[in-house]
Amino acid sequence: xxxxxxxxxxxxxxxxxxxxxxxxxxxxxxxxxxxxxxxxxxxxxxxxxxxxxxxxxxxxxxxxxxxxxxxxxxxxxxxxxxxxxxxxxxxxxxxxxxxxxxxxxxxxxxxxxxxxxxxxxxxxxxxxxxxxxxxxxxxxxxxxxxxxxxxxxxxxxxxxxxxxxxxxxxxxxxxxxx
Length: 178
Ligand code: IMP
Ligand code: MG
What we know:
The chain has three helices and ten strands, in the order ββαβαβββαββββ. Mean pLDDT is about 90; it is low at about 75-80. The chain has about 180 residues and is an alpha/beta fold. Bound molecules: inosinic acid and magnesium ion. Inosinic acid binds near residues 79 and 156.
């Protein structure tokens, strides 16, 4: 079993690159089909979603725009239960179909706040595309339209996801060894 060390913790290989990429293929196909003619604005949530956003967008073949916002709800490996908007939006959302591109939905708090924020800014329709979803951690009611991979309630890193800012730069996803 391949393991990596990040700061004080050990992580074991959990989702290999090929599995991530084929899950993204499936989501992109669905989005290309569903949102044709809707001129969607893809809104990527930094930092975690940067790799997923790049790989997803390479497969989107319909006319669309891409923008980025930065939110934060995590300190270390536990949710702080608080979400802050760090970098605001510079796009007019009035009447737009917005697709939020997120790395992972855990409690769902971040996504709930993002969706509310975008609707308040006039988005006609908000769809959520998340690379990863922890169904057993969900505490808030959020619509998840495009889920690439469902995972158990473990803390993971890699492919954009971090442990205290480290570990984002891997092709595979690793899970905390307890
Ligand atoms: P939520 O608001 O509880 O759904 O948490 C979502 C955010 O927490 C995500 O955007 C991630 O940045 C972060 N997060 C949740 N679970 C993990 C994990 O297992 N590893 C790294 N970051 C995570
Ligand atoms: Mg994130």
